[in-house]
Amino acid sequence: MGSFPVRLGFANSVSTPIATRVARRMGEGLRPQTAALVDGPPAAEGLPNGRAHLLTIVLEDYFNNFGHVIERSHWNRFETRVERGTRRALDLLDAHGIRATFFAVGWIAETMPELIRDVAARGHEVASKGYDQRGVHDQSPEVWQDDVTRARETIERASGRRVLGYRSPGWAAEEDLWALEVLANDGYLYDSSIKPLGLAFRRQPGRLVAHLNQFGSRTLWEFPVASASVGGYRIPIGTGNYVRQLPEWLMQHVVAHGDHSSADPFVMYFHTWELDPDQPQITAISPLSRMRFYRNIDQMQRRLGEYFRRYEFTNIQEYLGVEEELLPRPLPEAVRRDSPASVRLRLAPERGIEPVHVSLVVPCYNEESSLPYLARTLSSLETALAPNYVMEFVLVDDRSTDNSWIMLQQLFGDRPNCRLVRHDANYGPAVAILNGIRAARSEIVASIDCDCSYDPLELAQMLPLLDEKVMMVTASPYHPQGGVRNVPEWRLFLSRNLSGLYRTVLHQKLSTYTSCFRVYRRSAMLDMALKHSGFLGIAEMLGRLDLAGGTIVEYPTVLNVRVLGYSKMRVVRTIVGHLRLIVQLTLLRALRSRKARRGAGATEESAAVAQLPESRPSD
User: Fold this and answer.
1) CATH 3.90.550.10 corresponds to the domain 356-597
2) Three-class SS of residue 501?
3) In the chain, N or C: fewer CB atoms in 10 Å?
4) Each residue of 260-287: pLDDT tens digit?
5) For the packed helices 371-385 and 404-412, what is the interaxial angle rounded to 10 degrees?
6) Which fold has domain 9-13+51-319?
7) Pairing relation of β-strands 470-476 and 558-560?
8) H or E element, residue 245
């Protein structure tokens, strides 16, 4: 193999083995508190260069790493796949006789303690990655310390072993180093929160290699991820992302170079979800992030196997020579699978008041990737609204071409309060909602998008707004008290300007006219027929109800970007369609006004906005 044309400067551990450095410090009178735990160098017989590399694995689910687009309170709504990736990691490690350090997310330890217990039982170290993926830079010092304590207690309770190490979600920057003393004072033995990248820590090069931090009488080892210097910039080649992204020959050459030129270990890590190529992909992230998370993920297991065959790996605890400390087995307790605070409200029963029956209509078209998330969300909603509301769910398949109909039957077919409706052609979301309203059994009917871009739990606040005089309650992200998360600015600009045009035509001056998240009076919608059956029909329903004199109430809420699957809306076509609809509603209002002045009543509509037959496919 040809030589690598860039000078590589490795910074993947200390210049001498850990035990040697400890002995040297003891000889200098700088005996660290942890020295008693390190009786000698790690067992070196049979290892290349007389030492092993360090393998660390982040135990987290595929949705735990997207705090900027996925609220932590929604984690319980996603399909859980962490067990699949973890089992594959354990089997891969068993095949190569490796014992690794697993940095576990505390939320997973609380919701799936049996998985953490199994990792420990199979001979691996379990360390902490915080409770819910909030790093040291995301919280105040007090809140962060509470998070660290909660995570440690949760992981220890699940694993039955003492937690010795910590890795901060999002890694640690130079301004975060105050946290190391907190960890030392809490009794941690080591930290692994530094990932050398770019010019980070260039003024503190000692931070780029494994080192011992001393805080008075307490110490804390630091194990940064392996990195290489290219033109003065650090590249964290020890990460699973670089294992997947860089050409195999290049990574193998770089690692081999460091293995032969340094007597110290290569600190490597990957995520359990990187061994699950069939995981649902989060589509709300940027194209660059999608490449970083998903490119070559189907090759990860094979590529890791190449490294495991060539080099010896161990975990940090064994490398430091620390014996495993078993803890007393705690008393069994209820497992909180809805953590953290996924069900944010629970309505208290009101004595003497009968529960209100509510039907929720969900239009579905090619939503295969979103349906497991929807099923969990509806279960949370049903629990949150009980006992004041009795829910019925009407799911309308708009003639999907993927496996949506099969999945709807699998996920909802056996639920007694679920009704499944299937169209004989693709008519569009507006017709799907109208047909769902007709299939509903209750007078109060709500509708939501299948992707749950609006939080359905907000129904607890929307339902009481539908009093006797109100025909519709509509969610409004463009209300002054509403909001949007991660929605592109160009889309916000178009939506707000379209809302402004609708305000000039319709009687009720709302902030949002196009939201699918609504509560209806069924009797007000049964006889409605639409000119537009696609996305435009959502606005047309509101417009027709407004011009007919119905009262509509807005509820300010937050619109989130879609996180699973892709939108079916065609932007340019939809904008043109909205402009046509506004013209049609203007003509309809003028005709109604003229007939009202003549006393004829508004009983017929202009031919320009003639009703379409229900069976006509979407335009």
Assistant:
1) yes
2) helix
3) N
4) 877 667 899 999 999 999 999 998 888 9
5) 30
6) TIM Barrel (3.20.20)
7) unpaired
8) helix 240-245
- Give phi and psi for 363, each to the nearest 5: -75, 135
3-class DSSP state of 348:
coil
Burial class (CB in 10 A: 0-12, 13-18, 19+), 456: buried
Question: In 80-232, which ranges are E strands?
Answer: 101-104, 125-128, 165-166, 190-191, 211-215, 218-222, 228-230
Could you tell me if 605 and 611 are in contact, meaning their C-beta atoms sit under 8 angstroms apart?
Answer: yes
Q: Give the CA distances from residue 251 to residues 233, 238, 290, in Å, rounded to whole numbers and listed in that order.
A: 17, 10, 21
The model's pTM? 0.78
Q: What pLDDT digit, counting tens, does each position of 411-441 carry?
A: 999 999 999 999 999 999 999 999 999 999 9
Q: Where are the alpha helices (DSSP H) in 1-133?
A: 18-27, 82-96, 106-111, 113-121
The residues with which 190 forms a beta bridge, in sequence order, are 165, 221
Output 511-514 pairs: Cβ under 8 A, ≥24 positions apart. Answer: 511/476, 511/478, 511/479, 511/480, 511/482, 511/554, 511/556, 512/474, 512/475, 512/476, 512/477, 512/478, 512/479, 512/482, 512/554, 513/474, 513/539, 513/542, 513/543, 514/538, 514/539, 514/578
Please give the Cα distance from 12 to 248 (Å, whole number): 20
In the numeric block, the tokens 């099923």 are attached to: 375
CA 423, 424, 427 angle in degrees (round to 5)?
60
Nearby residues of 244 by Cβ (< 8 Å), 6 or more positions away: 274, 295, 296, 297, 299, 300, 303
The band of 495, judged by pLDDT with boundaries at 50, 70 and 90, is confident
The alpha carbon of residue 514 and the mean position of all alpha carbons in its chain are separated, in whole angstroms, by: 26
Q: Where are the domains of the chain?
A: 9-13+51-319, 356-597
Cβ count near 446 (within 10 Å): 25
